[in-house]
Q: What sequence folds into this?
């Protein structure tokens, strides 16, 4: 079963624009992570935010977490064609057990 | 190794056959996870190992699916009497247990049951 839902399901933008993806989840969490997937194969870990954190940055990525609304957002600034991929949020409700993934957002960045 | 290695990368099998999918995690990573991903969906959890033991196998869909990790390193996912609905990409990931950390995923095995 999927814990989270990403919104939008698909997003198409031009290079240089910002891309924002949202994730909603259902149960209480210990941490939330974002992953990128190219060509339907292996996922790459982007960023992890703990439940007691509200915002985190990594390079061109900015993640926010609102536990009262059970939602998170991923912002990619100054997007590049190489950012074209599917992006998934994943939640963990304890420190080291399974992550539950959302349904994903397909991002297309056109040159 | 430097990353998580999964073999084979592609497997085509006939309905009713038995298959084994292998995962070689990053050296020293105590936790190992198997996920299954159908087209257009997010990965779905199958089983999680902490060392040699299965700490959580609640995602295995039925008793045709079984996984082992006898020495706490390499893991094998075994599927008996395969069905067409088992067709998916099977992903393996590993992580250390020393601190909270993202998973490192392998490239997956694409299983097609015909």
A:
């Amino acid at each position: 079963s999927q814990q989270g839902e990403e919104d939008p399901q698909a997003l198409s933008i031009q290079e240089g624009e910002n891309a924002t993806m949202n994730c909603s989840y259902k149960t209480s969490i210990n941490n939330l992570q974002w992953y990128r997937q190219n060509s339907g194969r292996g996922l790459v870990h982007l960023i992890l935010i703990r439940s007691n954190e509200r915002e985190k940055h990594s390079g061109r990525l900015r993640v926010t977490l609102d536990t009262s609304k059970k939602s998170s957002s991923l912002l990619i600034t100054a997007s590049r064609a190489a950012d074209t991929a599917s992006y998934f949020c994943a939640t963990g409700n304890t420190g080291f057990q399974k992550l539950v993934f959302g349904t994903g957002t397909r991002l297309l960045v056109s040159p | 190794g430097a990353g998580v290695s999964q073999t084979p990368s592609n497997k085509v099998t006939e309905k009713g056959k038995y298959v084994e999918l292998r995962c070689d995690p990053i050296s020293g990573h105590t936790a190992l996870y198997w996920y299954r991903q159908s087209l257009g969906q997010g990965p779905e959890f199958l089983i999680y190992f902490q060392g040699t033991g299965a700490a959580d196998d609640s995602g295995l869909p039925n008793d045709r699916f079984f996984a082992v990790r006898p020495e706490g390193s390499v893991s094998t996912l075994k599927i008996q009497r395969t069905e067409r609905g088992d067709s998916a990409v099977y992903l393996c990931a590993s992580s250390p247990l020393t601190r909270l950390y993202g998973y490192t995923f392998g490239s997956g095995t694409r299983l097609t049951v015909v």
